[in-house]
Input
Amino acid sequence: MTIAALLAELATVPYDNRVKRMVALGQQARTDAAAAALLHDLAAANGFYERQLALLACYGSGDGAHVLAMLADQSRLLRGLALSLVAKVCTDEQAQLAFGRLTRRTQPKLLRNLRQRGRATVVDAVLTELAATADERLAQLLFFGTEGVVEKHVAAVLARWGEDDWRRLAKYHPAIAFAQLDHQQRAQTAPDGRLLYHIN
Output
Protein backbone atom coordinates (compact mmCIF):
# COMPACT_ATOMS: atom_id res chain seq x y z
CA MET A 1 0.00 0.00 0.00
CA THR A 2 1.17 3.53 -0.78
CA ILE A 3 0.74 6.64 1.36
CA ALA A 4 -1.75 7.97 -1.18
CA ALA A 5 -3.84 4.80 -0.98
CA LEU A 6 -3.84 4.86 2.81
CA LEU A 7 -4.86 8.52 2.94
CA ALA A 8 -7.66 7.85 0.46
CA GLU A 9 -8.92 4.98 2.61
CA LEU A 10 -8.84 7.05 5.80
CA ALA A 11 -10.53 10.06 4.21
CA THR A 12 -13.90 8.30 4.23
CA VAL A 13 -13.96 7.12 7.87
CA PRO A 14 -14.52 8.90 11.22
CA TYR A 15 -11.53 9.88 13.37
CA ASP A 16 -11.97 7.01 15.85
CA ASN A 17 -11.87 4.51 13.02
CA ARG A 18 -8.76 6.16 11.62
CA VAL A 19 -7.04 5.67 14.95
CA LYS A 20 -8.08 2.02 15.07
CA ARG A 21 -6.80 1.53 11.53
CA MET A 22 -3.43 3.03 12.38
CA VAL A 23 -3.12 0.96 15.57
CA ALA A 24 -3.85 -2.15 13.53
CA LEU A 25 -1.30 -1.08 10.93
CA GLY A 26 1.23 -0.58 13.72
CA GLN A 27 0.58 -4.07 15.00
CA GLN A 28 0.99 -5.41 11.48
CA ALA A 29 4.30 -3.56 11.13
CA ARG A 30 5.80 -5.67 13.91
CA THR A 31 6.07 -8.60 11.48
CA ASP A 32 5.30 -7.13 8.06
CA ALA A 33 8.14 -5.31 6.30
CA ALA A 34 5.79 -3.58 3.86
CA ALA A 35 3.67 -2.13 6.67
CA ALA A 36 6.81 -1.04 8.51
CA ALA A 37 8.09 0.68 5.36
CA LEU A 38 4.78 2.49 4.92
CA LEU A 39 4.93 3.82 8.48
CA HIS A 40 8.54 4.88 7.95
CA ASP A 41 7.51 6.88 4.89
CA LEU A 42 4.61 8.46 6.78
CA ALA A 43 6.91 9.48 9.62
CA ALA A 44 9.32 11.11 7.17
CA ALA A 45 6.59 13.14 5.44
CA ASN A 46 6.43 16.91 5.76
CA GLY A 47 2.72 17.08 6.51
CA PHE A 48 1.32 17.22 10.03
CA TYR A 49 -1.42 14.71 9.23
CA GLU A 50 0.97 12.08 7.92
CA ARG A 51 3.28 12.44 10.93
CA GLN A 52 0.29 12.22 13.25
CA LEU A 53 -0.82 8.97 11.63
CA ALA A 54 2.66 7.49 11.96
CA LEU A 55 2.75 8.44 15.63
CA LEU A 56 -0.70 6.97 16.30
CA ALA A 57 0.54 3.70 14.81
CA CYS A 58 3.01 3.47 17.70
CA TYR A 59 0.11 2.39 19.93
CA GLY A 60 0.18 -0.82 17.93
CA SER A 61 3.82 -1.12 16.90
CA GLY A 62 5.32 -0.19 20.26
CA ASP A 63 7.98 1.79 18.40
CA GLY A 64 9.54 3.61 21.34
CA ALA A 65 12.40 4.95 19.22
CA HIS A 66 9.95 6.84 17.01
CA VAL A 67 8.07 8.17 20.02
CA LEU A 68 11.36 9.38 21.47
CA ALA A 69 12.25 11.16 18.23
CA MET A 70 8.83 12.82 18.03
CA LEU A 71 9.41 14.59 21.34
CA ALA A 72 11.41 17.06 19.24
CA ASP A 73 8.82 17.46 16.47
CA GLN A 74 8.09 20.97 15.25
CA SER A 75 4.41 20.57 16.17
CA ARG A 76 3.46 21.20 19.79
CA LEU A 77 0.43 18.92 19.39
CA LEU A 78 2.55 16.03 18.14
CA ARG A 79 5.10 16.58 20.90
CA GLY A 80 2.24 16.32 23.38
CA LEU A 81 0.98 13.11 21.79
CA ALA A 82 4.49 11.67 21.88
CA LEU A 83 4.77 12.58 25.57
CA SER A 84 1.55 10.70 26.33
CA LEU A 85 2.94 7.65 24.51
CA VAL A 86 6.27 7.40 26.33
CA ALA A 87 4.91 5.62 29.40
CA LYS A 88 2.89 3.25 27.20
CA VAL A 89 5.43 2.07 24.63
CA CYS A 90 8.98 3.17 25.51
CA THR A 91 11.47 0.89 27.25
CA ASP A 92 12.88 1.90 30.62
CA GLU A 93 16.03 3.22 28.97
CA GLN A 94 14.05 5.17 26.38
CA ALA A 95 11.80 6.65 29.07
CA GLN A 96 14.84 7.91 30.98
CA LEU A 97 16.20 9.45 27.79
CA ALA A 98 12.81 11.06 27.21
CA PHE A 99 12.95 12.75 30.62
CA GLY A 100 16.23 14.40 29.69
CA ARG A 101 14.82 15.71 26.41
CA LEU A 102 11.75 17.33 27.93
CA THR A 103 11.40 20.84 29.28
CA ARG A 104 11.14 21.44 33.01
CA ARG A 105 7.46 22.15 32.49
CA THR A 106 6.74 18.79 30.87
CA GLN A 107 9.06 16.57 32.93
CA PRO A 108 6.52 16.27 35.79
CA LYS A 109 3.90 15.10 33.28
CA LEU A 110 6.14 12.25 32.20
CA LEU A 111 6.85 11.13 35.77
CA ARG A 112 3.15 11.29 36.58
CA ASN A 113 2.31 9.18 33.52
CA LEU A 114 4.99 6.64 34.39
CA ARG A 115 3.77 6.43 37.98
CA GLN A 116 0.18 5.92 36.86
CA ARG A 117 1.30 3.12 34.54
CA GLY A 118 3.02 1.36 37.43
CA ARG A 119 6.51 2.05 36.12
CA ALA A 120 8.03 3.01 39.45
CA THR A 121 11.43 1.59 38.54
CA VAL A 122 11.92 4.21 35.84
CA VAL A 123 10.71 7.04 38.06
CA ASP A 124 13.06 5.99 40.85
CA ALA A 125 15.96 5.75 38.40
CA VAL A 126 15.35 9.32 37.21
CA LEU A 127 15.11 10.63 40.77
CA THR A 128 18.22 8.74 41.87
CA GLU A 129 20.17 10.29 39.01
CA LEU A 130 18.97 13.76 39.99
CA ALA A 131 20.01 13.10 43.58
CA ALA A 132 23.46 11.89 42.51
CA THR A 133 24.14 15.22 40.79
CA ALA A 134 22.47 17.36 43.48
CA ASP A 135 20.07 18.60 40.81
CA GLU A 136 17.65 21.19 42.16
CA ARG A 137 14.78 19.55 40.25
CA LEU A 138 14.81 16.74 42.81
CA ALA A 139 13.01 18.96 45.31
CA GLN A 140 10.10 19.48 42.91
CA LEU A 141 9.84 15.90 41.68
CA LEU A 142 10.77 13.66 44.60
CA PHE A 143 7.17 12.97 45.63
CA PHE A 144 6.69 10.91 42.44
CA GLY A 145 9.11 8.27 43.76
CA THR A 146 8.50 5.14 45.77
CA GLU A 147 8.57 5.23 49.55
CA GLY A 148 12.16 3.99 49.75
CA VAL A 149 13.54 6.63 47.39
CA VAL A 150 11.57 9.43 49.03
CA GLU A 151 12.77 8.44 52.50
CA LYS A 152 16.36 8.25 51.29
CA HIS A 153 16.47 11.72 49.76
CA VAL A 154 13.80 13.78 51.52
CA ALA A 155 16.22 15.30 54.04
CA ALA A 156 18.28 16.78 51.22
CA VAL A 157 15.37 18.76 49.76
CA LEU A 158 13.45 19.94 52.82
CA ALA A 159 15.20 23.30 53.00
CA ARG A 160 13.91 24.21 49.53
CA TRP A 161 10.35 23.07 50.08
CA GLY A 162 7.34 25.32 50.23
CA GLU A 163 3.67 24.80 50.95
CA ASP A 164 2.91 23.06 47.65
CA ASP A 165 5.77 20.59 48.10
CA TRP A 166 4.57 19.58 51.56
CA ARG A 167 1.03 19.22 50.24
CA ARG A 168 2.22 16.87 47.50
CA LEU A 169 4.25 14.79 49.94
CA ALA A 170 1.25 14.50 52.24
CA LYS A 171 -0.91 13.38 49.30
CA TYR A 172 1.45 10.74 47.91
CA HIS A 173 3.36 9.71 51.04
CA PRO A 174 1.37 10.75 54.14
CA ALA A 175 3.36 8.57 56.55
CA ILE A 176 6.66 10.14 55.46
CA ALA A 177 5.20 13.64 55.68
CA PHE A 178 3.96 12.99 59.21
CA ALA A 179 7.29 11.49 60.27
CA GLN A 180 9.26 14.44 58.91
CA LEU A 181 7.03 17.03 60.54
CA ASP A 182 7.06 15.11 63.82
CA HIS A 183 10.87 14.93 63.72
CA GLN A 184 11.18 18.65 63.06
CA GLN A 185 8.74 19.50 65.82
CA ARG A 186 10.67 17.42 68.34
CA ALA A 187 13.97 18.94 67.25
CA GLN A 188 12.96 22.59 67.38
CA THR A 189 14.26 24.71 70.25
CA ALA A 190 12.08 27.74 69.59
CA PRO A 191 8.60 28.29 68.14
CA ASP A 192 8.55 27.94 64.36
CA GLY A 193 5.52 29.49 62.70
CA ARG A 194 6.22 27.91 59.34
CA LEU A 195 6.47 24.42 60.84
CA LEU A 196 3.18 24.95 62.67
CA TYR A 197 1.60 26.01 59.38
CA HIS A 198 2.74 22.82 57.63
CA ILE A 199 1.50 20.65 60.51
CA ASN A 200 -1.92 22.24 60.33
In short: Confidence is low (pLDDT under 50) at residues 189-200. The first helix runs from residue 3 to 10. The chain is about 75% helix and 0% strand. The two ends are 64 Å apart (CA to CA).
